[in-house]
Amino acid sequence: MTMASRKAKARAHQAEPLPQPSDYETDAPNLDILPPPPRSNTELNLSVIQRHNPSVRSILSIAPYAVVYLFSPAAQAWEKCGIEGTLFVCQLTQSSIGADRYAVTILNRRGLDNFTTELLSGDDVENTEEYVILQVGAEDGTPQIYGLWIFSEPPPSSTASTRTINAQIIQDCAIQAEMSRKLLEQELRDSNGAQQIAEDAQAEEESVPMGRQLSLRELFGQQRAQDAGWSVHNHHSSSLKSTQFTTTLDTDFFRATTRFTPAKHPQKPPPQPMNAQSGDDSDAIGQLFWKAKQGYRVS
Fold it and tell me: What's the number of domains the chain is made of?
């Protein structure tokens, strides 16, 4: 070996890095950290929908492509709203009274504005050959008519029945939501009515304790019932007869004694009026008074 080759070998040996001490926790594979399990398309779609609407509970049906139209009363025609994309029929969380809730959501591919409306009544949904027509109340209370055009290919394509299936599910969900809400509202009204009746009965019982004082109306009512058989023309009742004095010697004496009856004086005839033809003013005044007196007696 020449001198040059030895020097080159020595330089190569010096250039090799020194081995580092082994760290088991770093070098060994971590078996605790596992990749997340793969999620289905339904789970992925549900997570995406819940980002836009957290009240979504589950997805009932999906249409790959749908377009939203708005009916213009002025033009009497359907106009595009600029919303088109995947359609989802979703079940929402229950209402405060426990009623079922459903909604239709279309994630817009052409912009940031998505289409979402809750299905409240079966009367607000109508299925036609071309559109699924929805009546939605605007913020100012005026109704707006939307038409959902759902893409479907002719058979034997896999999307041949997409429009028919989704349209039927939308209508069924609207009917179910209305029936559930009305049933629970009726049960709530009935329970509130029964509770109110029970509370009124309990309040009435508590307001009439034992040993209570009678009201004036009740007192007068009892006295009126007691006095119903008494009258001025029929006052010789058994109650009055029972209060007469008992017969004694003194009462017999007074009854046997001849009663003094005062003599009746004959009534004087009323003064006759003076002749009116005498021309005396005093006679005319007396005649007027006499006529007035006679009229008072007659009446």
Answer: 1
